[in-house]
Amino acid sequence: MGTVNSTTTPMLQNRYALEETIGSGGMAVVYRARDRMLERTVAIKLLRPKYSGNQAFQDQFRREARAAANLSHPNIVTIYDIGYDAGRLFIVMEYIEGQNLKDLIRQKGLFEVHEALPLMIQAAKGVGYAHRAGVIHCDVKPHNMLVTKDGHLKVTDFGIARAIASIHPDETTDEIWGSPQYFSPEQASGQPPMPYSDVYSLGVVFYEMLTGQLPYSGKTPADLARQHRDPNIRPIPPRHLNREIPEELEKILLLLLSKEPRQRYRNADILARILEGLDTPIAQNRVVSTSARSASVSSHTRQQPVGKENAPQQTKGSPSAVLHPTPSSTLLTPDIIVLAIIALVLGVGLLPFYSYILNVLGWVK
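The structure corresponding to this sequence follows.
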């Protein structure tokens, strides 16, 4: 993304050599670096100079390191170390070679269902593990999801994470944390976040992946917050923007985006299990649809007419075809029918009738 400039400390604690800028945010800059002691590539999140002397930001930065360091899961970026050098706080993390999900959405426009579902399952598993460990992410968004070339997703940036045990149910605040495009109605209202707040944010990300746009858009953060809060403002139904979304999946999406927290899934773990239940049928239907298309092309090439009885009964966009694939029909040939009759005759001992059947069919010369 960019080389390290001359004003940046090129080496931290005489161990971590900064090599390239790979990301930046309001509080910190992220670098690809080399751990000279362990001879491995790492990512380093370095607090910006203007925040380094602010005790509140330092405390928040340390909270992120502690919250994420206790989380060990395949879908969460691993924290290795936290340090302080030349007046700068930094976090040493696992380096992920890939792109953040927001960049992928910008490139693709929107994801096909079979592409989006496995990624969202992984995101929900990572966030769900944090929920089981008593941690709320509070800033779930595609910018904080890293995707490798082989489709492995890892959640990162627990910068404003909260421990569930530290949250009082009656607390309110004038300071709103999170990203206005993705935060939940309760966060937009200054209420304490809970696991179902992360679930809402996952719903916003999923909606964006499948439709190519956010459920709400506004010119200012205040306008976005109002739209998230207002129970009379609803997102455009996803299938109006993408007919390939199955009806069952649309229902789940709208459930995730409920303004009322109790109408959502309690935590991301439950969401992951629900989505896993849809993943296999959708994948199976895609294989069947692909095979059917190939057979149709082959038949057309041979100029063989397709009778009405052979026409497909479900289109690719049909939800029932996607989530409830119809099993193949049993083929009944004349020989099978005759053998079934013979078995029935032998079963009841009607041997004369058996001889008559064989003579009629010409099986006895």
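Confidence is low (pLDDT under 50) at residues 170-176, 289-334.
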